[in-house]
Give the backbone structure.
Amino acid sequence: MAGTIEPIARMVAALSHLPGIGQKSAQRLAYHIATLPLEEVRDLATALWQGRKAIRLCEACGNYAVGERCEICADEKRHNGQICVVRDPRDVMAVERMHEYRGLYHVLHGTLSPMDGIGPEDIRINELMERVKAGGVDEVILATNPDVEGEATAAYIARLLKPLGIKVSRIAHGVPVGSDLEYADEVTLSRAMAGRTEM
Amino acid sequence: MAGTIEPIARMVAALSHLPGIGQKSAQRLAYHIATLPLEEVRDLATALWQGRKAIRLCEACGNYAVGERCEICADEKRHNGQICVVRDPRDVMAVERMHEYRGLYHVLHGTLSPMDGIGPEDIRINELMERVKAGGVDEVILATNPDVEGEATAAYIARLLKPLGIKVSRIAHGVPVGSDLEYADEVTLSRAMAGRTEM
C-alpha cells in the first residue's frame, strides 16, 4: 500500500487475520501500535505469546487450563454429578457469569457439521462418553448453541447418553429476558410458546 | 472474571488498551488467540514487537521510516518544492492513496490544543520552519483536519510562514464527493458555499 512501510504492513497483515478485524481496523491498530512506547508493545507481544504458551486444555473437561486440570475441575466444591456440555471455552465463561451453576463442564471444541466435514470423531464426544461411563454422573445438560449445528449436536449426544440411564437435559429456548417480544424472531417465539410453564 | 484463567486475563488486559477494542472485543480476541496454533501466535507477537522496533521517524519529515529517511523523502522523483503538512503518519497514507500528490510531507505528530496543554513546542512546527528557511520550498499545503484544533494549527503555521514570502495554502472544505447534500452538516455546507468555484 502506498505510503506504508514494511514493518507496518507486516503488523497489518498479522492483525487482519484476527476475527472481526478487517483491513481498515488492522491499519488503525498498526498505526496506533507504531506510536506506542517500546515497552508497551513489548508487554502486548509478551502477553499474547506467553499467554498462548501457558494455555493448555484441561485433561478432564477440555476447558482452557494452566495446569493439568482447569480451575473448575480442580475445585472440590463443584458438584461432579452434573456435566454441562458446551461448544467452546467461551461458553464456559458465559455460564459461569451466571454464578448459579455449580456442576462441571465438558467442552466439545466444535459442533457436528457434516457440511464442513466435522463428524463425531472431530469433537470431544468420545471423551464425554468415557467420563459418563466412569460413573458418578447423574445429569448431562446439553448447552450447545440454539442453532442448526448446536441442535444436531445436542440430539446426537442425547441419543448416545439415553441408553446409559442418566438424566439428559437441554437448556430452554425462549424470548431473552428484558427483550421486546416484537423483535423476537418466529422460531424463538415458537420455542418460547412450546416451552411455556404454568404460573 | 469467573472462568477466565490468568494467561487469558493478561491477554484481555493488554488488548483492551488498544483503541477501538473494548472489554468484549478483547475477550473475543483473547479466546480466539488461545485457539490458534502456537506458531501463528508467535508470528503475530513477532510482527508487533519487531515491527514496532523497526519503526523510526524520518529525520526530514517525521513520517514513519525504516532508515533515516522515509520512502517518500528518499524518493528523488518527488517534488521537494511542495510540503504538505499533516497531523500524523496515517494522514500521509490517506493523501498518498490519492496517487496525485507528488510533493513531500511534514508530519506534526499532533495539533495545537491549549486545553490539553499542547503548544507549538510540542508538535513539529520548529522543524517545519527550519525546513522552509533552508530554502527550495515554494508552497506549504496545510492539510490538518477540518476540526477546531486542525484549523487553529493551520492558522498558526500560516501566520509564521507568510512573512517568509512563500505560498501557503489550505485544503478545501466542502461536501464530500458522492455524499448527499441533505446529510451535510451546516458548517460543511457553509464552507462548501464559501469555497464555490465558477463553472
Summary: Chain A has a mean pLDDT of 89. Residues 38-54 of chain A form the longest helix (17 residues).
